[in-house]
Amino acid sequence: MKTLFIVIVSVVFAIGNLIFPDDFIKPTYEPTEIYKPVVTETIPSDAYTGEIPDPDVDPYILRPSPLSTAVPSGENTQTAAPAAAASLSPADIGDEIDFSSPQIEDTFERGSSGFGINAGLNDDENIRIIALNNQLTLIPKKSSGWLSWRLRPPFLNDGAVSMEFSITTCARGDRFGVIMRASDYTSGNGYYYSLACEGTVSILKDQTVLGTADASNVFHNNSGDINVLTAVTQDKTLTLMLNGESLLTVEDAAYSQGFSGFFVAPQGQDTLTMNVNSFEEYYNEQ
Question: Is 96 helix (H, G, I), strand (E, B) or coil?
Answer without folding.
Answer: coil
